[in-house]
């Protein structure tokens, strides 16, 4: 990539579907939990830190008292990359969860740190 790809695509404000005030917005990355085939290690996408987790391409079922990390080669969201090459000023995280647990969003920005979201119940959107 020559560094001008995002300039050719235009800024997020110029893309149809992008919204600033409560609109649908634009999906820039989806989280994958497993590789496209058995030849690719699932740990490139997510890693079981403790306990047990059943991973598929688009989701994961995490056992009680288990930890699943997405701080992996394909699991990170490179916010600094988006800040550098686009006019994006904010990012929204969305997830659909069921059961009880905790989701930690970790930012490399020292002012943000770690945001922990506790949830319980069925079919909740974060």
Account of the 3D structure:
- With 126 residues, this protein is mainly β.
- It has helices at 5-9, 79-85; strands at 47-50, 53-55, 60-62, 67-69, 96-97, 101-106, 114-119, 124-125.
- The chain is built from 2 helices and 8 strands, in the order H-E-E-E-E-H-E-E-E-E.
- The strands form 4 sheets. It has a two-stranded antiparallel ribbon.
- Strand 2 (53-55) and strand 3 (60-62) form a beta hairpin.
Instruction: Give the rounded overall mean pLDDT.
Output: 75
Number of strands: 8
Shape: globular
Number of helices: 2
Which value, in Å, is the CA radius of gyration? 17 Å
Order of helices and strands: HEEEEHEEEE
Main beta sheet, described?
A: 2 strands, antiparallel
What separation lies between the terminal Cα atoms? Answer: 34 Å
Low-confidence parts: 1-21
- Beta-strand percentage range: 15-25%
Task: Enumerate the strands of the largest sheet in spatial order, edge to edge or round the barrel.
Answer: 1-4
**Assembly state of the chains shown:** single chain
Strand pairing plus helix content: what structural class? mainly beta
Instruction: Assign a percent range to the helix content.
Output: under 10%
Brief write-up:
By secondary structure, the chain is mostly beta strands. Helices cover 10% and strands 23% of the residues.
């Amino acid at each position: 990539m020559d560094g001008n790809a995002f300039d050719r695509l235009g800024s997020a404000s110029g893309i149809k579907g992008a919204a600033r005030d409560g609109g649908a917005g634009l999906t820039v990355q989806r989280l994958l939990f497993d590789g496209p085939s058995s030849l690719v290690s699932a740990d490139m996408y997510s890693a079981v830190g403790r306990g047990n987790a059943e991973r598929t391409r688009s989701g994961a079922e995490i056992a009680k008292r288990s930890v699943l990390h997405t701080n992996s080669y394909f699991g990170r969201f490179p916010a600094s990359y988006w800040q550098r090459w686009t006019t994006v000023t904010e990012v929204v995280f969305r997830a659909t969860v069921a059961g009880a647990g905790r989701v930690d969003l970790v930012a490399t920005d020292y002012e943000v740190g770690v945001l922990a979201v506790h949830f319980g119940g069925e079919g909740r959107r974060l």
